[in-house]
UniProtKB/TrEMBL annotation:
Alphabetical keyword list: NADP, Oxidoreductase
First-tier enzyme category under EC: oxidoreductase
Superkingdom, taxonomy of origin: Bacteria
GO annotation, cellular component aspect: cytosol
The name this protein goes by in its record: NADPH:quinone reductase
Residue ranges occupied by any Enoyl reductase (ER) domain in the UniProt entry: 11-321
Organism expressing this protein natively: Ramlibacter pinisoli
Length: 323
């Protein structure tokens, strides 16, 4: 009998329950995947708390890596024995084995281990679409990136360095500042003692930056807007501190600013596009320009503890569950 984490109500980490799960044979267009590593992302907390609605009861988790055990009729994307990862598809990655749509599975190259891939599927692909699609960076820019020591942040630090981009990152502690710098962040602002917008202006000779990538949300909104150049862009790619509410008149007052709230599904589909994104990411890993391993691992049964650690802001890098 397979094991899976399920939620029957929204709430705190205590609503995560390890249960037996029936996993049958894959149907047409499906594949059964046995997981080796399961990523924990902040978006999982949004689903658990009801910020993003889910029909209940439900599984949880959006990305994992493992090996294909079986495929259903008509599947040509993968075959049994293939190592794969995924970041799209239905919730339910917090499980040791599951049936998935084959079209969302991404074959993993030999040069990328399962452990590394588990930190890259959602987080690395997020860095790809933020830096290469939402506001395409060409090199030479100075940017502001919030939560630079987080799971996506550490990959973003390295990607910025590889592109020749000067990244100003925000963190909440000196310990996290050291981690961000070690991964390529050019300048680090410790938010517990520094004024973000003031420091950005100092670092840019008063000009501000053309783009801010902000996954924090409510607590950093004002500083993000005040850090932008005229006609600059706020990429609001998360709301870990709470929802963002924007007075559009302020966008005009602060310099005719742009705001976008991107979603992965609109950048990683159709499948050929998703595979091209993954290839760019994996090529950087193979070239040694991005290095990523889980910072913390927990048994699948301890998913609630993993959520508590992330919510407390104690973590840096990627947190992974092991079935």
């Amino acid at each position: 009998m397979a094991k899976a984490i399920r939620i029957h109500q929204i709430g705190g980490p205590e609503v995560l329950r390890l249960e037996d799960a029936e996993v049958g044979e894959p149907g047409p267009g499906q594949a059964r995947v046995r997981h080796s590593h399961i990523a924990v992302n902040f978006i999982d907390i949004y689903f658990r708390t009801g910020q993003y609605p889910l029909p209940l009861p439900s599984g949880l988790g959006s990305d994992a890596v493992g090996v294909v055990e079986a495929v259903g009729p008509g599947v040509t994307e993968v075959k049994p024995g293939d190592r794969v990862g995924y970041l799209l598809g239905p919730q339910g990655a917090y499980a040791d084995v599951r049936v998935m749509p084959a079209a969302v599975l991404i074959p993993l190259p030999d040069a990328v281990s399962d452990a590394t891939a588990s930190t890259l599927m959602m987080k690395g692909m997020t860095a790809q679409y933020l830096f290469r699609q939402v506001f395409p960076l060409k090199g030479g820019e100075t940017i502001l990136y919030h939560a630079a020591a987080g799971g996506v942040g550490l990959i973003a630090c390295q990607w910025a360095r590889a592109l020749g981009v000067r990244m100003i990152g925000t963190v909440s502690s000196d310990e996290k500042a050291a981690v961000a710098r070690a991964n390529g962040c050019a300048e680090v602002i410790v938010t517990t003692r520094e004024d973000i917008a003031k420091r950005v202006r100092e670092l840019t000779d008063g000009k501000g930056v053309p783009v801010v990538y902000d996954s924090v949300g409510k607590d950093t909104l004002a500083a993000s807007l005040d850090s932008l150049q005229p006609r600059g862009t706020l990429v609001s790619n998360g709301t870990s501190s709470g929802p963002v509410v924007i007075d559009t008149m302020q966008l005009a007052v602060k310099g005719s600013l742009y705001v976008t709230r991107p979603a992965m599904v609109h950048y990683a589909t159709p499948r050929p596009h998703m595979l091209a994104m993954a290839k760019e990411l994996f090529d950087l890993v193979a070239a040694g320009k991005i290095r990523s391993e889980p910072s913390r691992t927990y048994p699948l049964a301890d998913a609630a503890e993993a959520h508590r650690a992330i919510e407390s802001r104690r973590t840096t890098g990627a947190t992974v569950l092991l079935p």
